[in-house]
Amino acid sequence: MTNDTKESNVENSAVWHNHVTVPDTPQGFTVRTTYPGNPHGADVMLEQWDAGSAEPVHSHPGDDMTIVVEGKMAIQFFTESEAGLIKDGEPLILNKGDTGYVKAGRIHDASYLENCKLVYVHDKAFGFNPEG
Fold first, then answer.
1. Where are the domains of the chain?
2. For site-directed labelling of 106, which of 3, 66, 114, 123 has its Cα 20 to 30 A away?
């Protein structure tokens, strides 16, 4: 807490400090993870994404939840067909304050339309499976 405010917010909270880059992840992405512990628990990450950055098409082995603390993002879902992956509906747009959920195994991508700060929760250990 700083001397000029008693309130914590997205701009002054230490929660958003100590982010690191992760090898083999898209440019513009930094993360701060939780400590390992309960094998039946959840992985929680505080993510920051630069506007214009994006994740490739992928799925996760567990359900996930994304809370948009700041910014705007889009999630595009896909289905598999004999011709390959096809878009499944319009992109889901998440704005500041919105929460989005993705079911385990659901193929999707994500693009960051504005600088984003996210709380990302993954059921059990996080996994990233490239698709397509």
1. 14-130
2. 114
**Residue-wise pLDDT tens digits, 14-43:** 667 778 888 999 999 998 777 566 666 788
Torsion sign across C-alpha atoms 115, 69, 91, 85: positive
**Element holding 18 (H helix, E strand):** none
Q: What residues contact residue 95 under an 8 Å CB cut-off, 6+ apart?
A: 68, 72
Instruction: Kindly report the pTM of this predicted structure.
Output: 0.80
Q: Say whether 14 sits in a helix, a strand or coil.
A: helix
pLDDT at 14: 63
> Letter for the amino acid at 32?
R
How far from the centroid of its chain's Cα atoms is residue 110's Cα?
Answer: 8
Cα–Cα nearest to 77, from 69, 66, 68, 88: 88
> How would CATH label the architecture of 14-130?
Sandwich (2.60)
